[in-house]
Write a structure and sequence with these properties.
The termini are far apart. Strand 7 and strand 8 form a beta hairpin. The chain is α/β, with parallel strands linked by helices. The strands form two sheets. Strands 1-3-4-5-2-6-9-8-7 form a nine-stranded mixed sheet. The relative contact order is 0.17.
Length: 271
């Protein structure tokens, strides 16, 4: 259920904005906001609150903390429903130039909001992502430190993608406030300090008709029980795409009733 109290984005400096180049939020583009709230509220236990952006936008809260944003599409827009990760940059215009310089596409923006500016882009293999230049909404500063999502890029060549995103988002440039890049468990692992903020894996097929096999950013939500999430999703018209276990824990890939893909993971408990 959406609360009636609006939550205005904060323009005042926050003590812990997202580190440079790190993910700063995830956003769902949905067909129907109320239907999306019902589905994700049941599957993931989220609550929702309105924003100053109007009746077609809401913040999702998990345990009272911001987790994601949801925005409803205009009925006449032919845009795919889906989750998009946004990364923090100090200058969105410079990031847009770096995207174009690397033969990728700026699809939308930069667009100005009260607290900053954003754009949406597609990398050279077609994976969609966003960049944000500005202050985070009130309470959002805990998003990075407390990790409500895990981002995994499924791409054709993880090393080539790491070079692309490293250039655009200035990863591994030696700056103390930037992200570092390592290779572990056959994946490229991106960290900000000690926190893993993204993983990049090879093997996606660019022209595959199955959207789960094409290059894309997979937004993954840690949950205590993947089977309970699968049951809740199916009960509300969602679909199970696949499930299994990795070194990190068990997972289930799901599709919401509008076609939006996401993953729930139950992290393996340490002994």
């Amino acid at each position: 259920m959406t609360s009636e109290q609006p939550a205005a984005p904060s323009t005042a400096p926050t003590p812990r904005d997202a580190p440079r180049g790190a993910p700063c939020w995830a956003h769902l583009t949905a067909r129907d906001l109320q239907a999306a709230e019902k589905f994700y509220g049941s599957v993931l236990g989220w609550e929702f609150r309105n924003t100053t952006l109007g009746d077609h936008f809401a913040f999702a809260l998990g345990d009272g903390r911001p987790v994601a944003g949801i925005g409803a599409l205009a009925a006449d827009l032919q845009v795919a429903v889906g989750w998009t990760p946004f990364f923090s940059v100090p200058q969105v215009d410079e990031a847009a130039a770096r995207i174009r310089e690397r033969s990728a596409t700026v699809a939308l923006g930069p667009v100005a909001f009260a607290a900053g500016r954003a754009l949406v882009a597609a990398d050279r293999d077609g994976a969609v992502f966003g960049v944000w230049d500005g202050k985070l909404p009130a309470g959002w500063e805990t998003w990075h430190d407390q990790g409500p999502v895990v981002l995994r890029l499924r791409t054709r060549d993880a090393f080539e993608a790491a070079i692309f995103y490293g250039g655009v988002l200035q990863w591994a440039d030696g700056s103390p406030d930037g992200c570092t890049v390592d290779y572990e468990h056959e994946e490229v692992v991106v960290r900000s300090g000690e926190a893993v903020v993204a993983r990049l894996g090879s093997g996606a097929v660019e022209a595959d008709p199955d959207p789960t096999l094409r290059p894309h950013w997979d937004v993954q939500f840690p949950v205590p029980d993947t089977e309970a999430c699968v049951a809740a999703a199916r009960g509300l018209g969602g679909q199970l795409v696949g499930q299994g276990t990795t070194h990190a824990g068990s997972y289930a890939e799901l599709r919401d009733p509008d076609g939006g893909l996401f993953t729930v993971i139950s992290p393996r408990r340490r002994a």
